[in-house]
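Please decode residue identities from the backbone states below.
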């Protein structure tokens, strides 16, 4: 998923694709994940999750290999159509893979699903950290096609390992994930809505860079794709390294305190994005080393803003009367993933539009401002002694 970032904007620009269309190409993946995830939740009740993962890996591998041939397409219209179509199928594969993996984890680790999800996030961060670096390196070695052909081949080659290593989940365990109507009750809890808004802002912060960071560095510093990939890797490495530390802290504190951690994480994220721009009139040096520092600060802070959210949402749901079981965890995970994917849609599209009209510095300043607005909204929550509210009383009092 992340191997595109260091070089695709440049290649797309050479084909005549605008930044807006490049942003749509990145966002198409997340659009499909948002739309198809509920259907994948139904599919796991009909097909064994292990078989779904195998099929998803095969589809993902084929998409990557196919993407490598797009360098030979000269027509902008055909190139755009091919990229959009392939990203749609990649999104389907990713959605199926995510839902099936969660189903297996919930069945095998029913009493530790929160901790297991935290470990999964660490490996997601590691994948995102090496993806841009590997993509940029392979691009320098063999051009546009090589990153896709190598990753696609490795993905398909991993299928036999998956078939041997993953357990077979009995049909009745899969059905336990169903909780019809539960999601509509959960989203009535104001605290959960606030957390989902925080997740959305964090996702926008992560993803607005996808279509614009490489062109910005290329124009400002004549940076190569490998340099762009290494810089982006700092963001994901900082996230992956700090996640276990923040996770340990989250396990030691109560739900009210986790809100304070989220606010600190949002504030640190806004500082990192301000440095990355940099925001005009603050006399921040616009240098490569400052970009590296900014990405590290943002990676550390976004992990702190994001990691407590799953556990907090689960605590709020249980306090509101939901059962402490894998079904509730499944609903929470689905909401969390859907809203984060929505941020993956808004981020690249909004980032490309702002960058094209106002420049990278203003675009980053706007994203940092969104984080600060979220802090103002969440500030009251940090010092509220109770964390589950009655919706009617909240609306009567004018909202909280």
């Amino acid at each position: 998923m992340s191997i595109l970032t260091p070089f695709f904007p440049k290649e797309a620009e050479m084909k005549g694709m605008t930044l807006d269309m490049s942003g749509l190409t990145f966002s198409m993946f997340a659009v499909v994940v948002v739309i198809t995830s509920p259907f994948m939740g139904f599919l796991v009740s009909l097909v064994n999750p292990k078989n779904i993962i195998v099929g998803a890996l095969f589809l993902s591998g084929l998409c990557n290999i196919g993407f490598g041939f797009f360098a030979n397409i000269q027509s902008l219209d055909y190139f755009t159509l091919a990229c959009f179509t392939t990203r749609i199928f990649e999104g389907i594969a990713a959605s199926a893979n995510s839902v099936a993996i969660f189903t297996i984890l919930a069945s095998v680790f029913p009493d530790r699903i929160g901790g297991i999800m935290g470990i999964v996030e660490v490996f997601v961060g590691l994948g995102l950290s090496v993806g841009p670096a590997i993509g940029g390196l392979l691009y320098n070695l063999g051009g546009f096609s090589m990153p896709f052909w190598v990753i696609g081949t490795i993905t398909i080659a991993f299928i036999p390992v998956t078939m041997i290593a993953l357990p077979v989940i009995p049909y009745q365990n899969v059905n336990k994930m169903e909780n019809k109507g539960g999601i509509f009750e959960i989203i009535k809890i104001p605290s959960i809505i606030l957390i989902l808004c925080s997740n959305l802002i964090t996702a926008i912060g992560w993803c607005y860079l996808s279509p614009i960071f490489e062109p910005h560095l290329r124009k400002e510093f004549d940076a190569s794709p490998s340099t762009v990939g290494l810089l982006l890797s700092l963001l994901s490495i900082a996230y992956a390294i700090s996640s276990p530390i923040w996770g340990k802290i989250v396990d030691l504190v109560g739900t009210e305190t986790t809100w304070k951690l989220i606010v600190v994480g949002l504030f640190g994220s806004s500082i990192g994005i301000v440095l990355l721009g940099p925001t005009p009139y603050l006399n921040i040096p616009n240098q490569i080393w400052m970009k590296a520092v900014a990405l590290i600060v943002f990676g550390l802070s976004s992990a702190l803003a994001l990691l407590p959210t799953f556990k907090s949402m689960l605590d709020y749901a249980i306090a509101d009367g939901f059962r402490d079981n894998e079904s509730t965890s499944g609903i929470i995970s689905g909401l969390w993933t859907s809203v984060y994917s929505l941020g993956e849609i808004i981020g690249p599209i909004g980032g490309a539009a702002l960058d094209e009209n106002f420049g990278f510095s203003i675009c980053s300043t706007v994203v940092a401002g969104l984080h600060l607005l979220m802090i103002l909204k969440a500030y009251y929550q940090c010092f509220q002694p109770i964390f589950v509210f009655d919706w009617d009383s909240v609306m009567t009092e004018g909202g909280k």
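Observation: The longest helix spans residues 76-108.
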